[in-house]
Write a structure and sequence with these properties.
Layout lengths: L3 E2 L2 H5 L22 E7 L8 E8 L5 E8 L7 E7 L6 E11 L2 E13 L5 E7 L1 E2 L79 E3 L37 E4 L16 H5 L3 E4 L19 E6 L5 E6 L3 E8 L2 E10 L6 E4 L5 E5 L5 E5 H7 L4 E5 L14 E4 L5 E6 L8 E7 L4 E8 L3 E6 L9 E11 L5 E11 L9 E3 L4 E2 L1 E6 L5 E6 L4 E5 L7 E2 L14 E8 L5 E8 L4 E7 L4 E7 L3 E6 L6 E5 L4 E5 L2
Parallel strand pairs: 2-8
Antiparallel strand pairs: 1-26, 2-5, 3-4, 3-6, 5-10, 6-7, 7-9, 11-37, 12-40, 13-14, 14-15, 15-16, 17-18, 18-19, 19-20, 21-22, 22-23, 23-24, 25-26, 26-27, 27-28, 27-29, 30-31, 31-32, 32-33, 34-35, 35-36, 36-37, 38-39, 39-40
Length: about 625
């Protein structure tokens, strides 16, 4: 048989062939800036699309700051805005807020004076806008900063888990493009781009404010998961009174107990028992009680589900340009009404180990850093810095697909696969304090970075990449295999050798490192999930038979998400069958038993709280987020 490299099929699930993106105008460091907190009530001008904020010196009337914010998507006409002040601002200031709808001035209001003390946040200054009927020939704020707040998404009853999407008679809209199960490798036609997105997002300046709705927490009643785990028939809006036992149809397959991985047991229950009490929420503005087939909501994919280190908050990020912040309460999740807005259709999120910084990865490659403490305590959003791709020696050809903090919070590792195999993959190690890249690694465009280990900045920081090769058998049929390479990307010690996982596996879907960096999990496009012992890099060994067997006939159960649970006792797997159902699998790494549940949208992200048993996962449709707690 004759091997030949095949980039497009392998990379299609990670990149789109064309994106219209704008760069982020932002400062290049994470240095803190004093904020003026402004609470605005524009209920007298409910059609306002933009708020123009003008800050002047209360004594001299000299201008201090002028910015604008977009109110689009807000469910309330009361918002809290964190406005960064110029360095050295002192004395007292006055605030004027003007509401606009296009070029039409709808009204204005003033507040203050407010004393400013360098080194401290000031306010909040309360401003109530009074309606006017004056039509302006000009005066439109010259910069739209963000998409603003989004309403509380009421947690909806967790209906039949097999009944959360449209009938599976075609590809799901809005998901990553990926290979089909046939031997020719034709694309399945799924697209990440929402149908309503027709152009680029607004520029977002570093010191620009973001509107955050100041509303009461989500008070909607959320009922526990009381539906069958597996359903054959799927209805996008099933009845909500299903009372079947939570584990009625759970499929548990006991695999041979060979080569079990040493893991720490969960305390106070397990993630499996928590799975019986999941509640469903929606990462989408103005979401209806049900998700309508073909709607914009159905296209929302949740790419990140990340808990704060103390487990009290959850951030979810999706392909609708923003990150939502949820508060964890006894009854489930409450929408804090805090929204971090990105610059493109798909964003990812990561939270620093100290819990004080939220990093938002934009599809244009820039990483925005936000003050998470301020967002939690004050309900206001402030961007404190940017890690800009303009500082790189070579500009990434593709958008960023992976981002994580080192365990000491000093660095962020980001990966940038190319859109075209003729260009290079790029891996960047960013210094959070300076906002500068401290290491850049270039790989050929066929070698795609997949995952990074959880490590301190001192290293080693292991990155796993996969390079696919297309083969033609004697009958003329195509098939694909991948070579997995491990490399230490830390900045210490200079150039590092690379190690290759022995043998070849099917086309790789996802890869995950265990927390202790001793085990590597690999999920393939054919649905196989296996484990490798990577504790000795020059003697990498496969650990027994696959946890989940793959298939080479019919529709493959492609792996789209893979993650170890907190403590490493379980491996969670999200997969999707072309023109078929999607599955969540939870593998017990001691017994090698696998529990399976079906959904109409594949799990695309997993997040685990510090207690080891509470977790969340986001789906590849309808913006569904499941929160699971014992």
């Amino acid at each position: 048989m004759k091997p030949q490299t095949k980039w497009s099929l392998f990379q299609a699930r990670r990149c789109l062939s064309a994106l219209l993106l704008l760069s982020v105008g932002a400062c290049s460091s994470s240095e803190r800036t004093d904020l003026l907190l402004i609470q605005v009530d524009w209920s007298a001008t409910p059609t306002a699309k933009t708020l123009k904020l003008t800050v002047t010196d209360a004594t001299t009337s000299a201008p201090v700051k002028e910015e604008s914010s977009n109110t689009s998507g807000s469910s309330t006409a009361v918002a809290k805005i964190g406005l960064p002040l110029p360095s050295g601002t002192t004395g007292s200031v006055l605030v004027k807020v003007t509401a606009y709808d296009g070029l039409t001035e709808l009204g204005s209001g003033t507040g203050g004076p407010q004393a400013i003390t360098p080194g401290k946040n000031a306010g909040p200054v309360s401003v109530t806008i009074q309606a006017t009927s004056v039509v302006q020939d000009g005066g439109l704020p010259d910069a739209t900063v963000s998409d603003g707040p989004h309403p509380a998404d009421a947690g909806t009853p967790d209906l039949a888990q097999g009944d959360t999407g449209p009938a599976s008679d075609g590809p799901t809209a809005g998901a990553d493009t990926g290979p089909s199960a046939d031997t020719q490798g034709t694309a399945d036609g799924r697209s990440d781009l929402p149908p309503t997105e027709t152009g680029a997002q607004p520029d977002a300046a570093t010191d620009s404010p973001t509107v955050v709705a100041d509303a009461a927490p989500d008070s909607a009643t959320v009922i526990a998961d009381a539906a069958p785990d597996v359903s054959v028939e799927r209805d996008i809006n099933p009845p909500s009174d299903s009372n079947a036992p939570a584990d009625a149809n759970a499929a548990e397959v006991g695999a041979p107990a060979d080569a079990a991985v040493d893991v720490a047991p969960d305390a106070g229950g397990t993630i499996l028992t928590a799975l019986n009490s999941c509640k469903r929420y929606v990462h989408y503005p103005n979401s209806p009680a049900t998700c309508v087939s073909g709607s914009d909501q159905e296209n929302i994919i949740v790419y990140s589900t990340v808990f704060t280190p103390d487990g009290k908050y959850l951030a979810t990020a999706g392909n609708n340009t923003w990150v939502k912040l949820w508060k964890v309460v006894d009854t489930g999740l409450e929408d804090t009404q805090v929204v971090f807005v990105g610059t493109g259709y798909r964003v990812t999120a990561s939270i620093s180990p100290a819990g004080d910084i939220l990093a938002l990865g934009n599809p244009d490659g820039n990483i925005a850093l936000y003050d998470l403490t301020l967002a939690i305590q004050q309900g206001a959003v402030s961007q404190t810095g940017t890690l800009p791709i303009s500082k790189l020696t070579s500009t990434p050809d593709g958008f960023m697909t992976y981002m994580t903090f080192t365990t000491d919070g000093k660095q962020i590792i980001a990966t940038y696969p190319p859109q075209d195999s003729s260009n290079n993959s790029l891996i960047v190690v960013w210094d959070v304090a300076t906002g500068l890249p401290v290491r850049q690694i270039t790989r050929n465009g066929l070698d795609i970075p997949m995952a990074v280990s959880s490590s301190p900045s001192t290293g080693p920081i292991w990155m796993a990449s996969a390079q696919a090769t297309e083969f033609t058998d004697d009958a003329g049929s195509y098939y694909y295999q991948s070579t997995i390479t491990l490399e230490d990307v830390s900045t210490t010690g200079g150039a590092k050798p690379t190690f290759t996982v022995p043998g070849q596996v099917d086309l790789v879907g996802e890869v995950a490192f265990s927390a202790d960096q001793k085990t590597l999990a690999i999920g393939t496009e054919e649905g196989e999930v296996g484990l490798w012992d990577i504790s000795v890099k020059n003697n990498i060994q496969r650990l027994g038979s696959p946890l989940v067997a793959g298939t080479t006939t019919g529709s493959a159960d492609t792996v789209w998400a893979l993650a170890y649970s907190r403590g490493g006792a379980y491996l969670t797997v999200g997969s999707w069958i072309y023109r078929g159902p999607s599955s969540l699998r939870v593998a017990n790494l001691q017994t090698r038993a696998v529990t399976q549940r079906q959904y109409d949208y594949e799990p695309r992200s997993f997040g685990f709280a510090s207690d080891g048993t509470t977790w969340a996962f986001g789906l590849g449709g309808c913006g569904y987020v499941y929160y699971c707690k014992n």
